[in-house]
Design brief:
heterodimer, A: 161 residues, mainly alpha, 2 domains, three-stranded antiparallel beta sheet, 12% strand, B: 109 residues, 79% helix
C-alpha cells in the first residue's frame, strides 16, 4: 500500500510539472485518467514494490546522499583531469575486489552505480556481493576499499526499516 | 541586476562544463587501452553534463523549466553509469582482461 501511494504521488507530480497545465479542467481530467491507468497497469504487472517505488528510502537519497556524492565526483574528476593533462600520464591501473555490504539489491545497485559515477573507478562485474573494480590510481581504489561509500549506502537503507 | 549575475554565472558554468567535456574527449584519445578510456568518458558524463545543465538552469525563464532541466540531469546521472558498466562488463565477458600497471598490490580474481 505504501508503495502504491508513493507511486501515485510521484506520477501526479511528474504529470503536473511536465505538462504545466493548471487551468483547463478537461486536460487535468485527462492527466488524472492517465495517472490512474498507469498505476493500474503497474499494479497488474506487479512491479509496485520496494524497487519499483522505493518509498522506504524517502527523500534521503536526495537530501543527504546526493550532495556528498556530488562532492566526491567533483574531487575525483579533478584528479582524473590532472592525469589526462599531465605529459607523462602517471597511471597506476589496478583491479580490486570490494565486498558490498548493503543487503538489498537496490542498495547494491546504488553502490555499484555510485562507484562507476565517480571518474577513476569503474565497476566491471558484480557477483553476489563481490564488486570487481577497475581503478585508474591507487588512491581511487583505496577510497573504495575503505568502504566510506559502502557505509553511506548501508545507512541509506537501514534507517528506513 | 539579478539577471546580470545569473547570466554571468551561467557563462561560468557552461564554459567550465565545455572545458571538462573537451578534457573527457582528450582523455579518450590519450589513454592507452580500453578500460582506462572508460574513465575519460566518465568525465564528460558527470562533470561536463552537470555543469552545462547547471548553467542552463541559471538561464531558465521559469521554475518549471528549471525543474525539467534538473530531471534531465537526474536521468542522465542514473543511466550513464549503467551504460558504462555494461560496456566494461561485456568487454570482460569477451575475455578482454585489462592491462595493469602493478603486479604486487591487486587482489585480482
Amino acid at each position: 500500500m505504501k508503495y502504491t501511494v508513493t507511486l501515485a504521488i510521484a506520477l501526479v507530480l511528474v504529470w503536473l510539472v511536465w505538462s504545466g497545465h493548471y487551468d483547463k479542467p478537461f486536460i487535468l481530467l485527462l492527466g488524472a485518467i492517465s495517472c490512474a491507468f498507469s498505476l493500474y497497469l503497474s499494479r497488474r504487472m506487479k512491479i509496485v514494490d520496494e524497487e519499483g517505488a522505493p518509498a522506504q528510502l524517502g527523500l534521503r537519497p536526495f537530501l543527504s546522499y546526493a550532495p556528498w556524492l556530488a562532492k566526491e565526483i567533483a574531487k575525483s574528476n579533478w584528479d582524473v583531469t590532472k592525469v589526462i593533462l599531465s605529459p607523462q600520464m602517471p597511471m597506476q591501473r589496478n583491479m580490486v575486489t570490494v565486498t558490498a555490504h548493503p543487503k538489498t539489491q537496490l542498495g547494491r545497485v546504488i553502490l555499484a552505480n555510485s562507484i562507476t559515477l565517480t571518474p577513476g573507478t569503474v565497476s566491471v562485474s558484480m557477483e553476489d556481493d563481490q564488486i570487481l573494480i577497475h581503478a585508474l590510481s591507487f588512491e581511487g581504489a583505496a577510497e573504495d576499499i575503505s568502504g566510506n561509500m559502502d557505509r553511506r549506502v548501508q545507512a541509506l537503507e537501514s534507517r528506513s526499516r | 541586476m539579478i539577471w546580470t549575475i545569473l547570466t554571468v554565472l551561467s557563462w561560468v558554468f557552461i564554459l567550465a562544463g565545455a572545458f571538462f567535456s573537451i578534457i573527457g574527449g582528450i582523455g579518450i584519445v590519450r589513454f592507452p587501452e580500453f578500460f582506462s578510456r572508460l574513465h575519460g568518458g566518465g568525465i564528460t558524463d558527470t562533470m561536463g553534463a552537470a555543469l552545462i545543465v547547471l548553467g542552463l538552469i541559471c538561464l531558465s525563464p521559469s521554475i518549471l523549466v528549471a525543474i525539467k532541466l534538473i530531471m534531465i540531469l537526474f536521468f542522465l546521472l542514473v543511466t550513464s553509469p549503467s551504460s558504462c558498466h555494461a560496456l566494461a562488463n561485456s568487454a570482460l565477458a569477451q575475455g578482454h582482461w585489462p592491462e595493469l600497471d602493478n603486479t604486487g598490490k591487486p587482489e585480482s580474481k
